[in-house]
# Entry
Amino acid sequence: MTSKMNYLYKFKKTILLRIVVTLCGIFFLYNSLTYIKHKDSINFMDNFLCKAKLAVERKENSFAGIIDISVIKGKGTLRIDGIFRNASSLSYIVQRTVIFDADKENSRPTWKSKKIITTHLDDVNDESLVTLFPAFYTKPTTVTNIDLETLSDGTLVITKSHLPYLYCSGL
Amino acid sequence: MPSRMIRYIIENIYEFDPSEMTITNIQTNEIVKIHSTSAQCLLLLLEKHKNIVTQKQLLQFTWGEKSLVVTHNALYQCILNLRKNFTQVGCTKKIITTIPRKGLTIDETVTVEKIENQSNSASERNTQSPEVNKYLPFPIQINRKFSFQALSIMLGVVIIVSALIFASSHNDIDFQKDYIEKKVEQSSCKFFVNNDEGYQEIDNNLITPFIKNCDGGKFLFFTAYIGMNSKSVLICDNIPGKYKKTQCRSLYLP
# Structure
């Protein structure tokens, strides 16, 4: 009788242990896969890509176009391509690349421009452009403060002063 | 290789199995698992039934070489646990008696029967160190406890690591929860503003052009904050963050 009880005790203990180990294994596997899936978004401040459609309007000036950002290990490039219109409805092409350092200040991203490269088509003057964009787009060694947020589906949203600025869903 | 399996029947009711480290009430089938050191203490007391066992003997038998660094408190904790274990299986009789300034005993008023048989179980092979073995009349499985402890630590580490991974992977933002829908009649688009502040800051003048130019069930998210001139509008073909393929363009009003 006692040996039967002992056997049952051992049997239950073994089964329970196996269940616990299996559950822990599943939990660990699930989290590892989730981690791998979201790995890029976890380190999104240092490594990410963003393509977004953007329009900016202020008074009579407006811009409509595409912004393409690439940040790899803290080194970034921002390509802006679009049309700038002024109060006289004259339109100008904006087509330039900003090379910048993507740093972090208190774990918040701070982008500092290093070099502005314009294409031969870019004919907007910087004085007009700064009515809509920060000096980061026109002058080296200027800073723009942005925030990066990932949504539940993994999409990156770049915000400025808590306002959604770029929705990186591609084009 | 067959090994001896020894059990003790105490008071014809309680069975002590040293290899399994259990005390069983044969009448009620209640089983209690006891600590390995407690099992060792009980074993020696049963072996020296009717005799007084000194603290030194108990310490040496239970902890071997380590007995020099083990405090007497640890020994008393063992005895206390044993008494508790006997109570747990329904024993009201005092099994272990303290003899002041001498030691401990299981006296003659307590009946003890020793049962021996053969076991081929590999799990019951002795894994004790030689120093301890010389006191042991049969194999006791101490490594089993160790493996349980190691397994518990391992599982604990796995759970902690998993929890950290889980926490770092799930810091995503639910975009829609910060917005409330603003009802606009006669429009196939849906308009959202960022909660209370958006309601105050975003007036109809901002929304009206979008109502007029609404094309095909778009979702528009207006964001503004009190004291800030800048505003932003996200024009999406679905709710952001809800579907992977949601496309949005942004209008920024600095």
User: Anything to note?
Assistant: Residues 3 and 13 of chain A are 15 Å apart (CA to CA). Strands of chain A lie at 48-58, 61-72, 75-85, 91-105, 108-118, 143-145, 147-150, 156-160, 163-168. The mean pLDDT of chain A is 85. Helices of chain A lie at 2-42, 126-129.
